[in-house]
């Protein structure tokens, strides 16, 4: 039970990383974590730990690597009608 609570807290903290660093809407934070987890075939908690480490100034652990930026770009809201995420 304690492990589940710790995992949930880690994921909750990590959701705030893409929201704060890339100014995403709050609902997109979890979507970014889930997309990275799915694409890298990595557990959500591991992705969360990597994003928190990155926010603290350490490079994201593999296999997460550069995937946070690409996941964020897909979740970024459109600012103009013709804009599309890259």
Write up what this structure looks like.
With 86 residues, the chain is mainly alpha-helical. It is built from 4 helices and no strands. It has helices at 2-22, 28-40, 44-55, 67-75. Helix 2 crosses helix 3 (44-55). The longest helix is centred in the N-terminal third of the chain and has 21 residues, at 2-22. It is globular. The N and C termini lie far apart (40 Å). Mean pLDDT is 76; it is low at 78-86.
Number of H- or I-type helical stretches: 4
Helix content range: 55-70%
Strand % is: under 5%
What is the total tally of β strands?
0
Terminal residue distance: 40 Å
**Overall morphology:** globular
Q: What is the residue-averaged pLDDT? A: 76
Q: Sketch the major β-sheet.
A: none
The parts where pLDDT drops under 50 for at least 5 residues are 78-86
Order of helices and strands: HHHH
Round the Cα radius of gyration to an integer and report it: 13 Å
The assigned structural class equals mainly alpha
